[in-house]
């Protein structure tokens, strides 16, 4: 989804006949820029610039570098960064460098959520190919919902996501590959399927991580290094992106980025990006629609997956058509409501959905356009209380920076 695509949609929406609202067509959703400007295109572009075979430079604006570091800040959306220049002066000074000097963001991919985005980054594949298409999705083999962030219930990682990561491909080509993150992530299934390859270095503090990332960049003539910080996202979920806590985390990350930029070895490029943006959603019945309390929305639903702004709805056998009709009638002015096949045809999950991924997608898929949530107060009590939320295809959620510093 480009800025132009979103602007076109807004103009078309503004031209709609007043007083005659119609459900949002699935094909009108502003689809991420798969293949040219999404998170899935970043590592293949960087590794291709280092001569790793089998990969292509999809983000054509990026110049090759022998050493590349990706610093992924969880929850650091493009719009939120631009809105806080006083809290993040260094990163704001780099806005013109984003996406190879175009001053444009990348798009996260759908849904704009951590497990999906990290898998897109690490595998270089869109969600329909890597197969982590949501926060929670149904495992067709068991019929249970699987939380792909926490990997619960446990599922064999290599069966769930069989594609090699870009780090593994780079390591096989002689590139020094490394990840620097929290020690807690060293052996998690999500790390295995999305970010494995080369060496993993666990460090607790942000300062330790960026210092070691700089060292790892200098450890090879060609190097591909990844580092990560999570607490901007955590502060947004708990307190909102308009909170002092969130702004304090943003200011801290700004100092980390500057610290890393000042330590880059020669022939390096640092890229600062994110897995998604975020919006705050008010706590009232108008903005938080409780599926557990709504008999119409519950009817015919066997499992409710995804998250508040990006739902996978799994119908009881034979009820998919009825569930689609009801959800579209009740929610269709605020959400893009699609059947599985409509969402696939519209390209929500990428240009192709693998056969093994097809039944992980909901029979009905709901993506929020407005500042609303589909909560589930009984099934998801903790998630239903989050202030900041993400997942859908709006600019606040989709647009992420690709800030660049080169030596």
The percent range for helix content is 25-40%
Question: Average pLDDT value?
Answer: 95
How many angstroms separate the termini? 31 Å
| Strand order in the sheet with the most strands | 6-5-7-1-8-18
What is the tally of beta strands? 18
Share in β-strands? 15-25%
Please summarize the sheet with the most strands: 6 strands, mixed
Low-confidence stretches: 11-20
Give short descriptive properties of this protein.
single chain; 407 residues; alpha/beta; 4-stranded antiparallel sheet; 33% helix; globular
Report on this structure.
The chain is α/β, with parallel strands linked by helices and 407 residues long. The chain has helices spanning 3-14, 42-49, 78-82, 89-93, 98-101, 114-123, 127-130, 157-160, 166-172, 189-194, 206-217, 231-239, 244-261, 295-298, 320-331, 340-345, 355-358, 395-398, and strands at residues 67-73, 106-107, 136-138, 145-147, 176-181, 199-202, 223-229, 268-273, 279-280, 288-290, 301-307, 310-315, 335-339, 364-368, 373-375, 388-389, 399-400, 403-406. The strands form 6 sheets. Strands 6-5-7-1-8-18 form a 6-stranded mixed β-sheet, with helices on both faces. The longest helix has 18 residues, at 244-261. It is globular and about 60 Å long.
């Amino acid at each position: 989804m480009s800025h132009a695509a979103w602007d076109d949609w807004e103009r078309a929406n503004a031209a709609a006949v007043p007083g005659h609202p119609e459900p949002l067509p699935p094909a009108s959703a502003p689809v991420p820029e798969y293949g040219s400007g999404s998170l899935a295109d970043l590592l293949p572009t960087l590794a291709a610039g280092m001569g790793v075979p089998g990969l292509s430079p999809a983000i054509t604006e990026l110049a090759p570098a022998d050493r590349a570091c990706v610093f992924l800040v969880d929850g650091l959306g493009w719009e939120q960064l631009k809105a806080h220049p006083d809290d993040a002066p260094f990163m704001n000074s780099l806005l013109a460098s984003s996406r190879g000097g175009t001053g444009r963001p990348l798009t996260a991919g759908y849904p704009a959520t951590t497990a999906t985005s990290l898998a897109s980054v690490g595998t270089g594949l869109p969600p329909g190919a890597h197969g982590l298409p949501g926060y929670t999705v149904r495992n067709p083999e068991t019929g249970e919902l699987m939380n792909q962030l926490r990997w619960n219930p446990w599922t064999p990682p290599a069966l769930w996501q069989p594609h090699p990561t870009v780090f593994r491909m780079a390591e096989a080509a002689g590139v020094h590959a490394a990840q620097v993150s929290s020690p807690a992530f060293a052996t998690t299934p999500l790390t295995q399927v999305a970010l494995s390859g080369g060496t993993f270095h666990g460090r607790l503090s942000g300062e330790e991580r960026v210092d070691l990332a700089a060292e790892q960049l200098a450890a090879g003539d060609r190097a591909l290094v990844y580092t990560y910080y999570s607490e901007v996202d955590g502060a947004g979920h708990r307190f909102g992106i308009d909170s002092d806590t969130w702004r304090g985390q943003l200011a801290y990350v700004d100092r980390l980025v500057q610290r890393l930029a000042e330590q880059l070895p020669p022939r390096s490029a640092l890229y600062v990006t994110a897995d998604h943006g975020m919006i705050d959603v008010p706590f009232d019945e108008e903005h938080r629609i409780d599926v557990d309390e709504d008999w119409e929305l519950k009817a015919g639903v066997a499992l409710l997956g995804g998250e508040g702004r990006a739902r996978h709805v799994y119908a009881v056998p034979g009820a998919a058509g009825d569930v689609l009709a009801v959800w579209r009638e009740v929610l269709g002015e605020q959400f893009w409501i699609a059947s599985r096949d409509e969402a696939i045809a519209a390209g929500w999950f990428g240009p192709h959905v693998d056969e093994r991924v097809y039944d992980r997608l909901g029979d009905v898929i709901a993506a929020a356009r407005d500042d609303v949530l589909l909560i589930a107060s009984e099934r998801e009590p903790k998630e239903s209380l989050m202030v900041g939320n993400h997942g859908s295809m709006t600019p606040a959620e989709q647009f992420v920076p690709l800030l660049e510093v080169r030596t």
